[in-house]
Amino acid sequence: MKDLIKELTETYGPSGNEELIRNIIENKMKGLVDEMKTDTLGNLICIKKGKGAKVMLAAHMDEIGVVVNHIDKKGFLRFAAVGGVFPTYLLAHRVIFKNGIIGTFGKEEKGSTKGELKLEKMFIDIGAKDEKEASKYVHIGDVATYYRELDVLGSRLTAKAFDDRIGCAVLIETARKLKSSPNAVYFVFTVQEEVGLRGAKTSAYGIEPDIGIACDVTDTGDTPEAETMAVELGKGPCVKVKDRTIITPLKVKELMVSTAESKKIPYQLEILEWGGTDGGAIHLSRSGVPAGVISIPTRYVHTPSEVLDIADVENAVRLFVEILKKNLKKEGF
Which of 20, 163, 3, 139 is nearest to 77 (CA)? Predict the structure, then answer.
């Protein structure tokens, strides 16, 4: 599974530019489902047919990035955020554009207070001598993402874009291991989650699921002086209780918890005080959908070097498979 995760995380795919990562995921899903289609917004919908409940599983393909909004006379690029980009995570890191051009972040020195860092005081250096040379390679509106390989740290991995390529990997591996299901399972790889849960909103509207479960990352409380949060690496995937976009319905939470406990799959309960996931968009679709989230504990989310434990990923796959083996129509969904 590490090879799959490496390929997914290292692929370019910021919000609104998911074509490359979608093509890779589509190839991985061939032969695992009965039907695949890409909808108007760009969501990849992979369907494993069944007569039971209509189950929507969602993981977003997009990652955060920056978009060029100005090129100055000396060839430096000014930029705006695409998704939750924070200045302190950028300085001296490298980015890559879709055409392979590499750049590094720098910041203005004059007039800046020590320790102060704002996006509008930063720029990208692609090594161009002037505006004319820079404009040969990069244009206004081009989007860049972190340029970073995956590395193995024992049982743990570090990479950019675990948010949410790890969710995509979980769904792909779930499809591989799910031999059969009494349910109609929709594996949905969504677009533009980082800029407003957009792909999940439109795909859920079209699918009209009986139940939805998103797979995404969540923060942890296990690093020195971390914000208080009862989530740790290696203790199992998380069953979300709430975040800023969803309060998980009791019967959905109980489905995930009871399945984990009956199959002896380690799990944690997650309360995220900031942010949200595709689950928040799914549960508000049409007249409402019972929805929940299975989260992968991840340190340093939205940085070039996120960290997670592979055991949590593998146990998330186990939990998804066991849930999908159940007849969810008989469970009341």
Answer: 139
Query: In this structure, what DSSP letter does residue 231 have?
Result: -
Is 311:3 a contact under the CB 8 Å cutoff? no
Alpha carbon separation from 52 to 293, 327, 330 (Å, rounded): 21, 7, 9
What gap in Å lies between CA 84 and CA 64, rounded to an integer?
A: 7
Query: Residue 240's closest CA among 221, 209, 224, 219?
Result: 219
pLDDT digits (tens, 9 = 90+) for 122-172: 999 999 999 999 999 999 999 999 999 999 999 999 999 999 999 999 999
The confidence score (pLDDT) of residue 110 equals 78
Which candidate, 169, 183, 162, 164, places its Cα nearest to that of 278? 164
Domains of the chain: 2-63+160-325 (3.40.630.10), 65-146 (2.40.30.40)
Q: How confident is the model over 33-73, as pLDDT tens digits?
A: 999 999 999 999 999 999 999 999 999 999 999 999 999 99
pLDDT band of 114, cuts 50, 70, 90: low
Strands 184-190 and 151-153: unpaired
Question: CA neighbours within 13 Å on the CB side: how many for 93?
Answer: 22
Q: Is 193 a catalytic residue?
A: yes
Catalytic site residue from 18, 173, 193, 306 = 193
Place of tokens 């997009």: 62
Question: How much helix, strand and coil, in percent to the nearest 5, is found in the chain?
Answer: 30, 30, 45
What pLDDT, on a 0 to 100 scale, did the predictor assign at position 186? 98
3-state secondary structure at position 20: helix
DSSP 154-186: TTEEEES-HHHHHHHHHHHHHHHH----SSEEE
pLDDT value of residue 147: 96
